[in-house]
Write a structure and sequence with these properties.
The chain is α+β, with helices and mostly antiparallel strands and 154 residues long. It is 40% helix and 25% strand. The relative contact order is 0.19.
Length: 154
């Protein structure tokens, strides 16, 4: 799973799910990641044997995602803006989940992990996508809690 960054705050219960039957590819979810700049939202990503390859940060106006190998290229080197018109957290989440389900294999192969891409299980990808939605709903209104704790600007 991705490393939590000093100075950031994380609210809610972390979730991890396998994306391959062998367990070499996993998905993690931080229900609310509060960045030092006082904004945030859910963050989830895909790891191969503990190395983070893909990350999604559907954080609204400052939302973005990462491909190509987050751990290898760093945040700046792997940064991708959401497509034009995908600017609200909800639409970014929808876009991200679609990419997770439909393009994870291609992005793993592109990042140099063709064996992990071949190990992906489409049923586990769908189950992980569904679990993200259910888990976030079950966590409740973490944004209000973060605002009350002055972790996110109102």
């Amino acid at each position: 799973m991705a490393t939590m960054i000093d100075g950031e705050s994380y609210l809610g219960r972390v979730m991890v799910r396998p994306l391959s039957k062998s367990g070499d590819v996993t998905m993690y979810l931080w229900p609310l990641r509060c960045l030092k700049a006082k904004f945030g939202g859910p963050t989830f990503g895909v790891d191969v044997n503990g190395v983070e390859i893909i990350r999604f940060d559907p954080h609204g106006a400052r939302g973005h995602w990462h491909k190509g190998g987050y751990d290898k290229l760093g945040a700046g080197g792997s940064h991708v803006d959401y497509p034009e018109g995908v600017s609200e957290s909800a639409s970014q989440m929808e876009f991200s989940l679609q990419v997770l389900r439909e393009q994870t294999g291609a992005y793993l192969a592109e990042a140099g992990y063709p064996e992990a891409a071949a190990n992906l299980d489409s049923e586990l990808l769908q189950a992980a996508s569904d679990a993200i939605v259910a888990h976030l709903q079950g966590e409740g209104d973490l944004i209000s809690e973060a605002k009350a704790k002055d972790l996110i600007a109102a």
